[in-house]
Design goal:
The chain is mostly helical. It contains 24 helices and no strands. It is a multi-pass membrane protein.
Amino acid sequence: MRQQKQASYLDAFIPIVVLVSLLGAAVYLYGDNSSSGPNQIALLFATFTAALIGLKNGFTWKTLEEAMIKGITISLGAILILLMVGALIGTWLLSGTVPTLIYYGLQIIHPSWFYAAGCLICGIVAMSIGSSWTTAATIGVALLGVANGLGLDPVVTAGAVISGAYFGDKLSPLSETTNLAPAVAGSDLFEHIQHMLWTTVPSFVIALIIFIFMGFNADVSSESSKIDEIATILQSNFNISIINLVPLAILLGLAIKKMPAFPAISIGAVIGAIWALLFQGDLIASQVNPDEGVLVSHFKLVWATFFDGFSLETGNAKMDDLLSGGGMSSMLTTTWLVMTALMFGAIMEKTGLLELFVKSILKVAKSTGSLIASTVATCFGTNLVAADQYIAIVVPGRMFKEEYKQRGLRSVNLSRTLEDGGTITSPLIPWNTCGAYMQSVLLINPLDYAVYAFFNLINPFLAIVYAYLGIKILKIKPKTMQQEKSASDAS
């Protein structure tokens, strides 16, 4: 058995330099299409580079291969959700659920407060169901359709959707990350949520104010005439009715009842298909070959919607793009990106290269402010390198846990910081699992909407400001120390 050597700082930097260089080249050469293959190749080459360093330091290929397989295994739950979300978008387009949301949204949401309203709606829904992903795939897709009808910027709209979805997800006790962070840090779930309010709510309020300002200054007068045209196209192609929103209501109800995401979204997709057969008969009839018979042709179209999405030709190119899409096949590129990203993250963690970065950070983090700022930076860096928000919570959480305790800081400080730096920044990175997912659903590059995801930008910054000013930084008391020790032992 070969002796494993301690990785050097040069070892740790080489894969990062390779990754950043190749990702930069991918964006330069391919632009918005960089996530459709070029980024995946960049991640694979960076993974091979890290693996070579691991082999040099005494790791066997079998060990490294097992780490990569384990990394991919971690993503399987997310991949299942991704595929089923693709099916859900397809069936909800065919069933009229998304078109109905767009139609009613055009009637009730005024352009001047659309961005803020969209952000707030996404926040409420995500808090209710505990899922930023489901919120973006349903409410977010509909809001982008409304933005198109109102002549508003879809990139800003995507920023509002991301801001609201992650605000609600972060504060929901139903959210996986909201449960994961206190479990890793050793704090109580509801104390963790209460402590997060101090950084999360002010950040969200500031974001809403910015969106309100942007809405009132948006120039939509020349585009407002399109609303009637879009409403007419929707009504002429779909049976628009409040009953089309039943699949959405059922999905939200299942999520509130804490049903896991995969079966809940699966049920939502199936109900969408049933609703299409029940209420969109004329639309389906216009899409099928009548020679195959009504039963066979209708069933064949709905089946195809699950795996290949829905396509509509209205005579208006923008509306065709808006009302077409979905299907499991639309998520395959994202699945590829998720797998390659987690392979790279797994190799970096297994070979000790990630840990090396954290240890070097701790050497310079002398004050409480610098420790929390370093934790935020480490979470963001892990999101960049390991490309997954769960890893960006678990790895820094494990590495900083004892340091917080030794400095007399309560574990809720760590759990809050893990969310401020890890959960919030994940959708801003194109090759991160969250960023890749949001691009596949909203069809907008994270590098574009990141500028307008104000909540996600403000929250980490505010957390650092609080840390240096000593605002709501809780210290360990004897009684609290015993409680946290019990929570830590239980987790």
